[in-house]
Amino acid sequence: MTVSAAASLTESFATLGKQFEEARPGLTVKFNFGASSALAESIGQGTPADVFASASTKRWTWPSRA
């Protein structure tokens, strides 16, 4: 599972990721932490992410993918 999350969520999400992996043997959680706007742009350009956790309350508009 790939999680893109705001840098401000690093500590709490790292803890949650470990708990999630322990509860689901065989599942690996990979994190990509950074600025919410940069992560949203990257995802919009095709970077895979199963979960996007933004620190911003802004609603993101994703470009349609062909």
Structure write-up:
With 66 residues, this protein is of the alpha/beta class. Helix content is 35%, strand content 20%. The chain has two helices and three strands; from the N terminus they run βαβαβ. The chain has a three-stranded parallel β-sheet with strand order 2-1-3. Strand 1, helix 1 and strand 2 form a beta-alpha-beta unit. The longest helix is centred in the N-terminal third of the chain and has 14 residues. The chain is globular and about 35 Å long. The mean pLDDT is 89.
Topology summary:
Layout: E1 2-6, H1 10-23, E2 30-34, H2 36-44, E3 51-53
Parallel strand pairs: 1-2, 1-3
Question: Key features?
Answer:
single chain; 66 residues; alpha/beta; 3 strands; globular; 2 helices; three-stranded parallel beta sheet
